[in-house]
What we know:
Layout: H1 10-32
Transmembrane segments: 12-32
Keywords: Membrane, Transmembrane, Transmembrane helix
Amino acid sequence: xxxxxxxxxxxxxxxxxxxxxxxxxxxxxxxxxx
Length: 34
């Protein structure tokens, strides 16, 4: 888990967190947008 927060794989963690954030906003639109 410590290797996820090194400077070499930092853009990968940003991409993963961005994907998770977009999924959360998508499901919140589905839940509260009806």
